[in-house]
Amino acid sequence: MKNDNLDKFINKIKLGNCLEELKKIPSKSIDLIFADPPYFMQTGTGTLYRINGNKYNGVDDEWDKFDSYKEYDKFTRKWLTQCRRILKDKGSIWVMGTFHNIYRLGYIIQDLNFWIINDITWEKTNPTPNFRGTKFVNSNENLIWFTKSQNSKFTFNYKTMKNENKKKQMGSVWKFSICSGKERLKDNNGNKLHNTQKPEDLLRRIILASTKINDVILDPFFGTGTTGAVAKKLHRNFIGIENNEKYINYANDRIKNVDKISKNDPFFDYIKAKFDEKIKYPKILDLIRENKIKSKYLYNLKEDKVYLNSEGKIKINNVKYSIHKATEIFENGRYLNGWKYWYIKEGNNYISIDDIRKDVK
Amino acid sequence: MKNDNLDKFINKIKLGNCLEELKKIPSKSIDLIFADPPYFMQTGTGTLYRINGNKYNGVDDEWDKFDSYKEYDKFTRKWLTQCRRILKDKGSIWVMGTFHNIYRLGYIIQDLNFWIINDITWEKTNPTPNFRGTKFVNSNENLIWFTKSQNSKFTFNYKTMKNENKKKQMGSVWKFSICSGKERLKDNNGNKLHNTQKPEDLLRRIILASTKINDVILDPFFGTGTTGAVAKKLHRNFIGIENNEKYINYANDRIKNVDKISKNDPFFDYIKAKFDEKIKYPKILDLIRENKIKSKYLYNLKEDKVYLNSEGKIKINNVKYSIHKATEIFENGRYLNGWKYWYIKEGNNYISIDDIRKDVK
DNA sequence: GGTCTCTGTGAATCAACTT
DNA sequence: CAAGTTGATTCACAGAGAC
């Protein structure tokens, strides 16, 4: 996974224009990209008052202003194109937005021939209410997770996610609260440092789901460095790009104070994605050569009996089938996992060939 | 709300090409459009199997195939343009999709200068599992709700929605189960009639939120007629367009068997959106003229005392303020609703002027 | 110290009517 | 039509302060 040209970027925040800095990064060097670009909110010019008469301070930052969708699209197309170049073939990308920009992002992602894996909804448990009762409360943000092409292999720690979700498959709607309290960075005046700081729990799930230990995660809109802080904690590397020096200073401080989770911590199994390590069991030919399958005949639980030849194939009417394919003959076209379907007989006992291969290991 | 040219379409399903049929409908005649257009599912050539070996029958109907995104975009642009023409200025539109098509829809909606009100996530409580454990379970579908332009007034039954949500503002993530059981239409062979039949609960919420009683709701991809069935139940009118005669036959049967909710049903208040009826209370001058405010002085809860003149203005230092504006003086610039801020005193009792006007009514 | 109350605040395309 | 006036609206937390 090493890339010498990448060393000078690793675990650093680059000050500068997003596009220019992306261009400096070596091709095919990044494992994961997380991008939370400006949303282009287009709020009105008037003031929005809270019900108690106070003003509501929404996002009015210069960095969120664009002249038109056309300008926004052009910008999006450029940074996504750079992301394609620097991403490893087995890497993947997350982007984030609301209805203001998410359709621009998704459309361009598809036009650039990226391949969408999932669309995720972040359901906020404590969104800002709609003070005037004009519409449904905007209680969600949206994420898109995608690869460079349809055939890309990508990291997905399926079992880790399942363990995080009461042993059930993790779905595409995630509930988290917004970033507040101690986690929310304050400036020297005690005001919120950044208008749109993201919660660490969200980044934690993204990183645990789609990276391996020591992977390199790039965030081209680094802000206050949530991506970097969580990456460090979880023993991943980060690269940040940010054009506001103030944010960088706070982010560097923040990350410096993060402790990596200890290797003695029971949670360290999660960090290694231990549950998702691929275990290589012996193949059927290995078992035969090592004389682990003592019988020449296999049985299913309906007591059908078949002959297993020295090539590891099941012969039926002089035609050779794999142990899996052979299930179709006996199960009306249903194609099942042969390891769990076929048994040998020892006296009156049926022993699954799947148990045999796992015992060998 | 009557439009004579519309009579021949009302509560009927038109057999034919979506675009051609849309063109026949009069301009600015429709209150609400609900559109669940064909999805652009790319299942690829591989067959997907359930764990038990049965083939998974996903969406692979002919009507779902398009040559490319370009074709899909072109088609989307055309039917949305027709929708703009036939929609009343105060009408609104819902579209629905998954990540395969929702970004195409949203992007084009914005390009056509529609104005998005909300994006809604339908969280499925019982989604199809991901059989191979290759990604997060797709447990959501997405809806976009929008008007013809930024300044469009539209129907939103805010309080009705609040009542449906434990008296709290309804958010943008909706939990419903997928359509199954008795609700799911079967064909004569007992198989599911349509691959993407929508649950009635979903349509119920959409219709209750964004239409008034007797409104006309158009569904250009009518399918098995969920929109029509729910519209009828809730005392709304529908127009359906569908190019598959088989679906139309089943849908007509289905809708014929729907009973409108009785006017004696306690739920009928919801149908009329009674909670959202605008109530006109007397104004401050009316109350003074009719001598309903017996005192010349008003108090706030801090016991500040002000003089209310015969013009209904509060005089402070010889300057006249409205009852609302006057709150700014006593609340450090906070501009509050005067009706709930000012009281008269009867003995030791404070009586809110808001209570007085509501009693008068 | 513990419990209760009060206050502050978050990616917001946040009004309708009269003069 | 622009400017001014009237009036209808909030939820989950965290943290500070009161008792």
Task: Give a structural overview.
- The structure is a homodimer of 361-residue chains.
- With 361 residues, chain A is α/β, with parallel strands linked by helices.
- In chain A, the strands form three sheets. In chain A, strands 1-8-7-2-3-5-4-6 form an eight-stranded mixed sheet, sandwiched between helices.
- Chain A folds into two domains: 4-276, 3-Layer(aba) Sandwich (Rossmann fold), CATH 3.40.50; 284-360.
- Chain A is 28% helix and 20% strand.
- The radius of gyration of chain A is 26 Å and the shape is elongated.
- Chain A binds a DNA duplex (19 and 19 nucleotides) through residues 38-44, 46, 48-52, 54, 56-59, 64, 97-100, 124-135, 137-138, 141, 177-182, 184, 192, 195-196.
Mean pLDDT reading of chain A: 95
Number of domains of chain A: 2
For CATH, the homologous superfamily of the largest domain in chain A is named as: Vaccinia Virus protein VP39
| Low-pLDDT sequence parts of chain A | none
Strand order of the largest sheet of chain A: 1-8-7-2-3-5-4-6
What characteristics describe this protein?
homodimer, 361 residues, alpha/beta, 8-stranded mixed sheet, 4-stranded antiparallel sheet, 12 helices, 14 strands, DNA-binding
Topology readout:
The structure is a homodimer of 361-residue chains.
Chain A (H helix, E strand, L loop, with lengths): L11 E4 L2 H7 L5 E6 L33 H18 E11 L4 H10 L3 E10 L15 E8 L10 H7 L8 E4 L23 H11 L5 E4 L6 H8 L3 E6 L2 H12 L11 H4 L12 H6 L7 E3 L5 E4 L5 E3 L2 E3 L4 H5 L7 H4 L1 E4 L2 E4 H8 L1
Parallel strand pairs in A: 1-8, 2-3, 2-7, 4-6, 7-8
Antiparallel strand pairs in A: 3-5, 4-5, 9-10, 10-11, 11-12, 13-14
Helix pairs in contact in A: 1-2, 2-3, 5-6, 6-7
The first copy, chain A, binds a DNA duplex (19 and 19 nucleotides) through loops.
